[in-house]
């Protein structure tokens, strides 16, 4: 029987791709968002998840359409610093996550996958990273209220997993979420590497981000885990080794960089989730 998954933020940029991915892989997604999903074929519930009552209700049941939820994918958030005031972002993102995690506990929804962020790696790297490529093996370095909320969400998840040993909570530290519309403008930054130095020239295609979400659901095991999720290449035409030498001289490197390989290490996601990015801007006709 198809497994029911609540997808918060399912009407958004990444959420729409996640819904498509889950629908084509045997899941039954139900979108929960402040705005309805554009496709009327997709089950969609409008809710403001800052409200605990609404968060609790959508994980327990929504009228006669469903009575049991098997998993939660939580993407609802203001998706970056500067899009609202710091305190509005902090409050919206942290409280929705607390409401959903605690509601999942109450409703017995034991599988949770949610969007954390590459910002925890130290973006915008005004302070250079400790080494390259960056990975999951150094302490979080939030540099904004947005990132601080994501950091506290990961901290919260670790404690909730400790309190509830049957639960699986997986954080995906997603890179900058991009799609074909963004790729159409990729010529603009090629002449000046400093323009996208802030996130080490990384990105995640919506479809590959969606694959990571699905695979995290499929590989859920009890406990808290987190993964860096990016595409295998950069947004640049210039080779990665050249970018590093120019923009991050003196930063230790853990490997020799080949071609345009990403500086956000995705080895752990490949190894443990079977994540295999296949889309991206180089495959897209621009
Ligand atoms: N966009 C990026 O570059 C990026 C990078 C890393 C991580 N992320 C994370 O990925 C997730 C999805 O990002 P996106 O780019 O698809 O953003 P988006 O803005 O396109 O989608 C987010 C959705 O969340 C909904 N939402 C926000 N607050 C809500 C609330 N209180 N109640 C109900 N719905 C609410 C919005 O209506 C929107 O549809 C977010 O958690 C974001 O922080 C995004």
UniProtKB/TrEMBL annotation:
Pfam families: Epimerase. Residues 5-229 form the NAD-dependent epimerase/dehydratase domain. It comes from Nocardia jiangxiensis. InterPro entries: Epimerase_deHydtase (IPR001509), NAD(P)-bd_dom_sf (IPR036291). Signal peptide: none annotated. This is NAD-dependent epimerase/dehydratase family protein.
